[in-house]
Every structure is written in C-alpha cells, then in structure tokens.
C-alpha cells in the first residue's frame, strides 16, 4: 500500500540474552539508516517491545546572549565552553546524528568546534557512522523557533526522532538524553524531563509525527506548548532540578 513501509522484525526476544542480541542488531541497523522492531509476537498482549531508528540531537546555539552580555556559547563552565559541553554530552548519548544550530556567533562557534576536533565528519571516538552538522540560522533574531525550523529542514527522511537541547544547560547528564531515547524506543512519541512531577520544556524528544507541530511554532519558544497540549502522551523522565539549570546571566556562573 502507498503508506506502508519496510521494517525488519527481530522476534522471539522472550529472554534477556535474546533481547540483548536483538538490541545489538537493531542498533547496527539504525546506524545504517534502517528502522527495526523488536518483539515477541507469540502468546503476548504486547508483541512489540521496542522500536529502533536513527535519532538526532539538536544543540540550539544561535542566540545573541543579550542578557549575558557576551557570547554565552563560548563562556566557560569548569574550564569548558558551553557549546563544547553540549556537543560532547550529545555525542556520548548514543545519537546517530548531531546538529549545532548557530546564529549570532556563527563563525566563532564553528571555529571553536573545529579547533577541538568536532568537524562535520565521522564521530571522533567511535567507528560507527555519525554525522556532525553545523546549520546556520540566518533568522536567529526572530527567536528560538526559527532555529528549530532550520534544524528540521536539514534532516533526512531516515531520522525518526529529534532531541532538542539548549546550549545554556551545562549540567545536563548524558544519562538524561539516553533515557529520553529509551522512552521513544518504548513507544512514547514525546519525552521530556520532569522535576517533582512537573514536565520541563528542555531538553525534549519529539518523534517525527510531531515535527509539523514544531514547524508551526513562532517566536522565542521551542516545543513547550506542544508538550503541554499533549501532556498525556509525554513520557516524563524524573530528574533533579539542578541538572536543568539555565545560564542566562554572568552572575549565574558564580
């Protein structure tokens, strides 16, 4: 049928060793751009256990840092520029592609990434196919939504989900991004951190089916309203509030 698609089904994962092997295979398929399903079809009410596919991390680093007073992306936290921390965290989370959206300080950010070995090429510490891409948002002054649009406009049809993370949350743990991906694999089309049961807007994962909603957003916001409007569909990942601290002013660094 016109809207059907091909997806390998890794079946009979009814034991932990079989499930582990299926995940290895599904991970390799995802790196090659092929989505797959993991299941145990016979005699179960939930035949599909997990879905696997390519996931992208989008670092939003286009802002003009008006409140900060200088390029926030280049500010040091524990001796490391915030944009480098964000890129490293995303790389270590197991995503298959990463986009860094630049704007006000495009040249400076690109030069800094290149200086530290983050070129638009293969992942530096892993043999698996990986793409690091820098996307310049020429409309960055119109707000964060334009950076989200710029990122989505570059993604191939093989990408199944996208995680958006701001450059100014330097304490994000790698485990949080991994848990967001795990929530998607387990069937959630939206995933976001929760502090004391309250959903926070970033970082957040959006499955492809919600990308048209993101493209409809305008202004200096991301996908917070989409998460709020679809609260019953959001996988809440509990975290400590300290991991989501934003750096908006120089005083925040102190």
**Strand tally:** 13
Evaluate the radius of gyration: 18 Å
Order of helices and strands: EHEEEEEHEHEHEHEEEHHEH
On the 0-100 scale, what is the average pLDDT?
88
- Give the % helix: 25-40%
- The percentage of residues in β strands lies in 15-25%
What is the 3D shape?
globular
Description:
The chain is α/β, with parallel strands linked by helices and 254 residues long. It has eight helices and 13 strands. The strands form three sheets. Strands 4, 7, 8, 9, 10, 11, 12 and 13 form an eight-stranded mixed β-sheet that branches. It has a three-stranded mixed β-sheet with strand order 1-2-3, with helices on one face. A two-stranded antiparallel sheet has the order 5-6. Helix 1 links the parallel strand 1 and strand 2. The protein is globular, with a radius of gyration of 18 Å.
Give a brief description:
This protein is α/β, with parallel strands linked by helices and 254 residues long. It is 29% helix and 24% strand.
Which key terms come to mind for this protein?
eight-stranded mixed sheet, 254 residues, 13 strands, 8 helices, three-stranded mixed sheet, alpha/beta
List the helices and strands and how they pair.
Elements: E1 9-10, H1 16-31, E2 36-39, E3 48-52, E4 54-61, E5 76-77, E6 80-81, H2 82-92, E7 97-102, H3 106-115, E8 131-136, H4 144-152, E9 159-166, H5 174-185, E10 190-195, E11 198-199, E12 204-207, H6 211-215, H7 224-229, E13 234-238, H8 250-253
């Amino acid at each position: 049928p016109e809207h059907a698609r091909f997806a390998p089904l890794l079946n009979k994962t009814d034991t932990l060793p079989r499930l582990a092997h299926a995940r290895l295979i599904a991970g390799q398929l995802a790196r090659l751009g092929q989505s797959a399903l993991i299941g145990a079809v016979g005699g179960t009410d939930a035949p599909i256990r997990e879905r696997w596919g390519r996931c992208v991390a989008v670092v939003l680093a286009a802002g003009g840092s008006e409140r900060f007073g200088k390029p926030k992306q280049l500010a040091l936290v524990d001796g490391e520029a915030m944009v480098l921390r964000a890129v490293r965290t995303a790389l270590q989370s197991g995503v298959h592609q990463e986009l860094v959206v630049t704007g006000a300080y495009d040249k400076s950010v690109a030069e800094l990434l290149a200086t530290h070995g983050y070129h638009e090429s293969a992942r530096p510490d892993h043999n698996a196919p990986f793409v690091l891409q820098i996307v310049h948002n020429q409309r960055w002054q119109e707000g964060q939504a334009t950076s989200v649009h710029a990122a989505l406009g570059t993604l191939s049809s093989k990408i199944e989900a996208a995680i958006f993370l701001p450059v100014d949350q330097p304490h994000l743990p790698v485990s949080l991004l991994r848990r967001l991906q795990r929530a998607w694999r387990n069937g959630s089309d939206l995933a976001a951190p929760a502090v004391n049961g309250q959903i926070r807007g970033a970082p957040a994962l959006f499955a492809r089916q919600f990308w048209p909603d993101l493209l409809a957003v305008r202004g200096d916001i991301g996908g917070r309203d989409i998460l709020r409007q679809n609260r019953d569909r959001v996988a809440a990942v509990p975290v400590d509030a300290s991991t989501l601290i934003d750096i908006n002013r120089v005083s925040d660094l102190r």
